[in-house]
Amino acid sequence: MYFPNKQRYSLLNAASTKENELRVIKASAVVLLASIFLSLLSPHSSSAAYSAEDLVREIPEFEETLAILISKLPIEEKRLIEIKISARNQWGSDDPAEIYQLLSNDATPGVPKGYINYRDNLVKVNSSILWLKNQIAIYQIEIPKMKAELERLKAAEATATPTPSATPTPSATPTPSATPTPSATPTPSAQFQINYVESHQNLKTEISILIKKYPSQKKILTVYLKKLEVINPLDLNNSTYIEKNLQDIRSKIEVTETIVNQNARTITCVKAKKILKVRDLNPKCPTGYKKVEK
Fold first, then answer.
1. 218 with 194, same domain?
2. Nearest 10 degrees: CA dihedral of 186, 187, 193, 196?
3. Is the pLDDT of residue 232 over 70?
4. What is the number of domains present in the chain?
5. Torsion angle of C-alpha atoms 147, 152, 154, 157, degrees rounded to 10
6. The model's pTM
7. Neighbouring residues of 92: CB distance < 8 A, sequence distance ≥ 6
8. Do 212 and 288 belong to one domain?
């Protein structure tokens, strides 16, 4: 799928007031991201992959949108500070719970209107700041990916179109054995497949090792293992979904391991002349072993 430049710029230029400016930027970002996800990040799907010419045109637009998003962040953060200062001046606090308690002491029945306005403004600005930070992070990841893809495409085009001066002489004609076979030329989708399969298998192996190492964490680690079972790394039509889930499981495993390492206790177990040290959150000696009391 490809969205014409005119459509994208019309979204950005449609902002006539400050009230709808952020909403328009959001709409523009959605259109731009839909384009990149469908065509660049899924070259194996039915939609056509980007050409070098497409990316030469697209990258400046993405960089421009990123600059706009970055410029909006300080404005929203300034608004948040102003709202809190106003609350402190008016009620002596910027904490919603304290303000609610203070205004509830009035004779007015129900939730105080002043509290509702303050809370709604606070939620709105905080949501805008969070959204902007998330979008900025996405663009900062995707733009380098696009640039890398552009370099790859340029290199591929240069290789596929030899210059006249590069025409080999009869003496320089390569032997049949030196001619690379089609199977020796990895496609982007094949590379993605290898990466996902390796990551998938590595995570499964790591979880299995951690379950043996930390039996008390078997329940939570098994949940991650089951999540991996429903992810098919060979289904490249869902490459973005696969990548996101693998990263999510990876981060959760790291958090679990960190918690265990920080809070684990070590006990010594003996069986005849065998001595075994067990480290876990709730360490227990294996069957046949006895705990050595200190």
1. yes
2. 90
3. yes
4. 3
5. -160
6. 0.41
7. 102
8. no
